[in-house]
Known about the structure:
Elements: H1 9-17, H2 40-45, E1 48-52, E2 62-65, E3 70-74, E4 77-79, H3 83-94, H4 104-115, H5 119-127, E5 131-133, H6 138-148, H7 160-170, H8 173-180
Parallel strand pairs: 1-3, 4-5
Antiparallel strand pairs: 2-3
Helix pairs in contact: 3-4, 4-6, 5-6
Amino acid sequence: MRNQLPAHLLEILRTHLINPKAFLIGGCYLRGDWCSYRSAMELKRAGIHFKPGKSRRLTDVRFNFFHCSALLTLPPITIDDSTKSEFLNLVAYEACPDTPDDFGVTSYLSFMDSLIDHAEDMKELRSKGILLNFLGSDQEVADLFNEIARDLVPNPHAFVDVKDKIDKHCNSKRKIWIAEW
């Protein structure tokens, strides 16, 4: 089979950001379960720590349990003046016919929007080296994610394992008690 040239410049960028095999069949919506969304500060209070991943692929989000705490690993990204237009163009590209229908960028933005409600959430992720802020204040970055992700519909299969593990951790009264102690 012959390698095809990308149809669009955004396709090149997207292939560097998204692992096409990241979202497997099955999901919290399809199983009848409900996966809640919690901000970074809520997760921190529940004993979940944050760490930047080695990969910059937006689909490389991991959640690992430890004895009394947990670790959410997120790809490090740089936020600057071009971030908003880059993400909006990628979301628009994903909505076009004849493009991959996994909605990887859209799902990542929705997931990050769930983590970032306020400047404090952004500050926590910035302090861990996950979000590198060259845009302005932490509130400006929080507003950016909240604005970009408004009205987006993510892939229901996206990050389903991570969301499920977060829910199980946050619903464990013993783990929450230990984290608060």
